[in-house]
Design a protein that fits this description.
By secondary structure, the protein is of the alpha+beta class. The chain has a domain of 30 residues. 18% of the residues lie in helices and 32% in strands. The protein is built from one helix and four strands. The radius of gyration is 17 Å and the shape is elongated. It starts with a strand and ends in a 23-residue tail after the last helix.
């Protein structure tokens, strides 16, 4: 999982060996293509991805977790 620091509107997810996946495209009323990606992964993998994403984006405060120099925050000098 990564995000481009120059473009905060994109993220890249890399999922190796998903249990199932499908990709489909359709046209909307404006004749532009719309893609749909479905990937089946174990919930434990999704949990790990979600936690890593929240840490990378420093979203702990939005989720009720430690922020700034509080213990457990990624910005704290101590672990």
């Amino acid at each position: 999982m990564s995000s481009d620091d120059d473009n905060v509107n994109t993220a890249t997810l890399s999922i190796e060996n998903p249990a199932k996946f499908s990709v489909s495209y359709s046209e909307n009323n404006n004749s532009s293509a719309m893609g749909h990606l479905i990937v089946e992964i174990p919930v434990s993998v999704l949990d790990e991805m979600a936690i890593a994403w929240c840490k990378q984006r420093k979203l702990q405060g939005a989720l009720g977790g430690p922020v700034g120099q509080e213990w457990g925050s990624p910005d704290a000098d101590y672990k």
